[in-house]
């Protein structure tokens, strides 16, 4: 199994993932010796507060995973401008904040017990010791196959150096993967920075790099079509897309199967992680290791980041509330219970519609007021030509609407796990309305109210 297609909206290869630059400033920066850089890598101490928010969210998320038997491994992709700062133009030299921010974040996460892979140190050492082996494309913001392989090897060595993780990895079935490098360098089409240069910038000839192919030894075929479910998942950015080779290199470095999910910069890492956790791939078979690849530059853009598209933006605490809910492996019964009333109600814990329209909804009444520490667990099946279905949710306080929001489900007619976190910080919720939209059939069953551990609802 090489990758997983989730219910995600279309992504773009490059998107504004940091505060906007001035209109006269191009996103691409022309460096020395035909090296190009990405302006959104540049940061300063004004970004520290937002960065610390991201660090704190990851700390809490890691704890929630650990309490449910899953080890989070964080792999931040270091700034290209730091690794190859010798090629950065004089007017764009790194400031002290940029120079030390990676280690500051890594230390903050590690001190809280989060497993962090130090890609920054391994990349700096490699760039110094093997300057001819470029870890990033000159004309693109992404890592080369050489850089992706080093990242994968660093992940593997970090796990091997940690006794607990090493023992845990041994319990995952081994696979045999082989690697073969191309005999000649090939022209690459990876040149996202070329299209973002200032007007009048020079033309750049194609960049040539060595590529590699990973094959599974047992079958001698490519990596597609494995029937087994991997116990290691990779959730990442465009640096984890198949063309970068990073997912395949992880399989080779670990000699284990890896389920890979990657999203573009427009949605961002927080949306990507939440979408994976909601999917059957996680809910039915949660991994033992969850590797989270995230560009260092995106750490200053937490879920509520102002310059992200509104549809991908979320309250920081509510993001944490939702992902903490989705990783719960057991239901701790809440003091209250829930039952369906009104149209569609068949039993206390089951609602069923032969067909629904935009005006139909299922109503769940709570036996007593609940708060944000409670969440709903149920099974849901909807039919709508296997399409992604937008599920509208509305939590009530008496007759008044407290909040409305949406989630996406698979409308393929099969039963899927449904976990609904109630809005963070709220109290005295009395009911929940579920608006399925137009479907050819809807069933919600086995409804339970569960409760998060107290420290997860703060």
Detail the poorly predicted runs: 5-18, 220-226
Structural class: alpha+beta
Order of helices and strands: EEHEHHEHHHEEEEEHEHHEHEEEEEEEEE
- Shape annotation: elongated
Q: Which sheet architecture does the biggest sheet show?
A: 9 strands, antiparallel
Helical segment tally?
Answer: 10
Radius of gyration: 23 Å
Q: Kindly state the mean pLDDT as a whole number? A: 92
Query: What is the number of beta strands?
Result: 20
Count of discrete structural domains: 2
Percentage beta strand? 25-35%
- Intertermini distance: 38 Å
Percent range for helical residues?
Answer: 10-25%
Task: Please give a structural write-up.
The chain is of the alpha+beta class and 458 residues long. It has 2 domains: 28-326, no CATH class; 338-457, Galactose-binding lectin (Jelly Rolls). 24% of the residues lie in helices and 28% in strands. It has 10 helices and 20 strands. The strands form 5 sheets. Strands 12, 13, 14, 15, 16, 17, 18, 19 and 20 form a 9-stranded antiparallel sheet that branches. α5 runs parallel beside α7. The radius of gyration is 23 Å and the shape is elongated.
Provide a concise account of the structure shown.
GO terms for molecular function: hydrolase activity, acting on ester bonds; transferase activity. The chain is of the alpha+beta class and 458 residues long.
